[in-house]
Amino acid sequence: MSVRILALVGSLRAGSHNRQLAEAAAKHAPAGAEIELFEGLADVPFYNEDIDVEGSVPAAAARLREVAGGVDAFLLFSPEYNGTMPAVLKNAIDWLSRPYGAGAISGKPVAVVGTAFGQYGGVWAQDDVRKSAGVAGGVVLEGVKLSIPGSVTRFADTHPADDAEVVTALTEVIEKVSSAAAVAA
Length: 185
Hints:
Blueprint: E1 3-9, H1 17-27, E2 33-37, H2 59-69, E3 73-77, H3 87-96, E4 109-115, H4 123-135, E5 139-148, H5 151-154, H6 164-184
Parallel strand pairs: 1-2, 1-3, 3-4, 4-5
């Protein structure tokens, strides 16, 4: 039985290097791990308790919760926007944190990785994502990190799925997430 891991990408841009990184993770997932890239974060409205009412939750948010509820773990991909995480990723975490204490992220392993143009590969943003996911109830795998600097130049001519160093590092991350999910189950 495979460990099901949901990938949430914090960049909506069509040519996003973080999207490409998530695609590489899905393509090179080791045996026993299945990575599903969630499509539709752009359609999820900003979290608002007034619209988070049973029976009338917006369809995109309900779909996010439904898909997330059926997985064993999360792999979050975050670029760095103005020194922090993108709003779309924070919004997804907010929706997954509810209902408080029983949200779809609660008790499940979460790893955060990503790439950014800067020399540190988005570590500030990724640290913020870890903090938010932990507060939301996820079991953040603090020791599982991958921050790839210089995305614009590194991936100008090479897709992350074709970068042997990136594939090796991603595979290690996925193996650690899979192991944590297996223990949690």
